[in-house]
Amino acid sequence: MAELDMKHPVKVDANKTPTVDYAIGDVLSDIYIDPEKERAALRKFDIYVFPVSVIFIVLASLDRNNLGNARVFGLEEDLGLHDRQFGTINTLSSVCTILFELPWVLAVRHFGARAALGTAFISWSACTIGTAFITNYGQAIAVRMLLNTAEAGLAQGFAFLFSTIYPRELIGKRVMSTNLAQCISGAFGGLFAYGVQTMGTRNGLAAWRWLFIVEFCFTIFVGGIG
């Protein structure tokens, strides 16, 4: 006979692994999760979801941070920026990042990660290629604000996604991928920019413009697979 502990709704049976009863009204169901199958499922998420989160955040960080590299390559001179205009572009872009973090997380929750994060990916990729063809201060502000808006909730969206997949004790390592991805971007972003700079002016386009064109091609290929 199975014994029922009234304080904790767990059936104890000598011939069966304990299961937990969840009762609502007259509805009673036994839920048993096989530990081996659970580990196998989580391994699949580690193989298919976790790497994509790292790749997306690395690409987003590259696209966002390369504006500073473009400045070194002559962006300010070509656009006629002066005084604190470059700093204003960065400031307004950062405001968009702060304002749109929560809306993107809500979008992931409501529409699902595939739709929300996929839309963010396409949007910031379009803004990246758009940066290559800006010609004045106003266009620079608009395109970079849109880019930061698209990227705003990326890390937070993946963190929310992980919270719906992994047990509490396993979430921390996956969320930490945000910091790992940003470190990777910082380590190789300058090297990538230097490689593009050596191209010089090609087909009438300055090196800083090629930086965003090459970056767009790389992002749309690798991120599209993700």
Q: Tags for this entry?
A:
2 domains, 4-stranded antiparallel beta sheet, elongated, 226 residues, Growth Hormone, Chain: A, 11 helices, single chain, alpha+beta
Describe this structure in words.
The protein has helices at residues 35-48, 50-72, 75-79, 85-99, 101-111, 113-131, 137-151, 154-163, 168-175, 177-197, 207-225; strands spanning 3-4, 10-13, 16-24, 27-31. It has 226 residues and is an alpha+beta fold. It has 2 domains: 3-32, no CATH class; 37-225, Growth Hormone, Chain: A (Up-down Bundle). A 4-stranded antiparallel β-sheet has the order 1-2-3-4, with no helix packed on it. A hairpin with a 2-residue loop joins strand 3 (16-24) and strand 4. Helix 2 (50-72) runs antiparallel to helix 11 (207-225) and helix 8 packs antiparallel against helix 9 (168-175).
Our count of domains comes out at 2
Mean pLDDT: 81
Q: Which strand order do you get reading across the main beta sheet?
A: 1-2-3-4
CATH architecture of the largest domain: Up-down Bundle
From the 3D structure, determine the CATH topology of the largest domain: Growth Hormone, Chain: A
- Top CATH class of the largest domain: Mainly Alpha
Helix content: over 70%
**Regions with pLDDT < 50 over 5+ consecutive residues?**
1-14, 16-28
Topology:
Layout: E1 3-4, E2 10-13, E3 16-24, E4 27-31, H1 35-48, H2 50-72, H3 75-79, H4 85-99, H5 101-111, H6 113-131, H7 137-151, H8 154-163, H9 168-175, H10 177-197, H11 207-225
Antiparallel strand pairs: 1-2, 2-3, 3-4
Helix pairs in contact: 2-10, 2-11, 4-7, 5-6, 5-8, 6-7, 6-11, 8-9
